[in-house]
Amino acid sequence: MPDSTDSPRPVTRIATHTRPGTAVGPSKPAAQAPSGSPILPSEPTIFHQPWLLKIASDGTYREATVSSGGTVVGRLPYILFRKVSGHRVLSIPDLTHALGPAITVETGASRSTRSLRQFSITRDLIAQLPKASHVGFRLHQGISNTLAFEAAGFETIVDYTVEIAPQPREVLWSQLRDKTRNVIRRAGERLTVVDLLDPERFLDFYESNLHERRLRNYYPRRICAELIAECLRRGVGRVVIAADPNGNYKSGVFTIWDHQQEYYFMSTRTRDSQNGATSLLIWAAIQHAAMQGLTFNTNGLDSRSNFMLLSGFGGTIKPRLIVEKSSLTYALVRDVKRRLTPLLADPRG
User: Fold this and answer.
1) CA-based nearest residue to 157, from 15, 48, 263
2) Which of these, 180, 125, 181, lies nearest to 151 by C-alpha position?
3) Model pLDDT, residue 305
4) CA 137, chain centre distance (Å)
5) If DSSP states are collapsed to H, E and C, what string results for the chain?
6) What does the alpha-carbon distance between residue 160 and residue 147 come to, in Å, rounded to a whole number?
7) Are 120 and 112 in contact (CB under 8 A)?
8) What are phi and psi for residue 327, nearest 5 degrees?
9) pTM for the full model?
10) With contact defined as beta carbons under 8 Å apart, do 149 and 122 qualify?
């Protein structure tokens, strides 16, 4: 998918199409912190923050929690779907992209003690999850191993992303592939990068580009609009547009960030935008992240679609761990669907 990412990031999905389905409300609600006095353990990513989870899940997310001495020391947010086929699927809410256990780190403890504590808390969190035909989590960058999940019968899969550490502009520019620098230069000569503060205008543009390609928006517009608006209001999100001299939008990118990373989240472009429109905006986002001292995360890397585009910006390819566990029946049904999909596809596209 070179220079055209007309869907929210990331490319690789877990839980194998968890939607359509009906969200199921498990018995244990998400832990809530009193206003102005947070009691939640560390939030390793913005995707762990309760306000974002609530929007992304349309209010249906739940959490497994572990407490010690009356304090929450571990959280594992999730959402439970009941699929049309009758299977229950437990996964992360769409538009969260990476979750997994959020565990309070004891700074004074030895490395071995911290590792053992993380294993123990993670094991206890997993034990609280409701029964489901399929369970899948894409884990955040702070999770370096899946030993507790493997002990619980999960399979580990490796996904990839690109991380670009903050550097001075000239250093970041020198790290770009020559071809990437050239397309950015050419795009910069004919396009202007501007901030867009209206989520509805961005989504109008997003959906019009999908319509041009005869594609539908896989994500509910209402939820996307609410998420973008709240990120802008909180100052943790940005929509940038590449516009031509007549003011016509050619490409758009939405990024969000937390205390460590800025994530390439959602993008779109017109059919006639030519090479470079999206690259120009990614370059602008990389600089924006660096100015805040944040690592820019492409939020996914797929060798079949966007590898050439995203690897052109330099940085380091990093693994992201995915854990999954399926019942035998669910695995068989999924395998049959995977085999039939190419046969049922319209050869005309």
Assistant:
1) 15
2) 125
3) 63
4) 12
5) CCCCCCCCCCCCCCCCCCCCEEEECCCCCCCCCCCCCCCCCCCCCHHHCHHHHHHHCCCCCEEEEEEECCEEEEEEEEEEEEECCCCEEEECCCCCCCECCEECCCCCCCHHHHHHHHHHHHHHHHHHCCCCCEEEEEECCCCCCCHHHHHCCCEEEEEEEEEECCCCHHHHHHHCCHHHHHHHHHHHHHCEEEECCCHHHHHHHHHHHHHHCCCCCCCCHHHHHHHHHHHHHHCCEEEEEEECCCCCEEEEEEEEECCCEEEEEEEEECCCCCCCHHHHHHHHHHHHHHHCCCEEECCCCCCCCCHHHHHCCCCEEEEEEEEEEECHHHHHHHHHHHHHHHHHCCCCC
6) 19
7) no
8) -70, 160
9) 0.84
10) yes
pLDDT attached to residue 304: 63
- Nearest residue to 120 (alpha-carbon basis) of 150, 100, 78, 148: 148
CA distance 143 to 149: 11
- The closest of 258, 268, 238, 263 to 318, measured between CA atoms, is 263
- Which whole-number Å values give the CA distances from 267 to 9, 209, 224, 253, 254, in the listed order? 8, 11, 12, 4, 6
Backbone angles phi, psi at 306, to 5 degrees: -110, 15
CA 36 centroid distance within chain: 27
pLDDT tens readout for residues 88-121: 999 999 899 899 999 987 777 788 888 999 999 9
- How many of the other CB atoms lie within 10 Å of CB of 340? 10
Buried b (16+ CB within 10 A) or exposed e, 29-43: ebbeeeeeeeebbeb
Tokens of 244: 């031509």
Give yes or no for a contact between 74 and 119, defined as CB atoms under 8 angstroms apart: no
Q: Which residues of the chain have pLDDT under 50?
A: 1-21, 25-40, 343-349
pLDDT digits (tens, 9 = 90+) for 145-172: 999 999 999 999 999 999 999 999 999 9
Count CB-CB contacts under 10 A for residue 218: 12
Which tokens go with 138? 């894409």
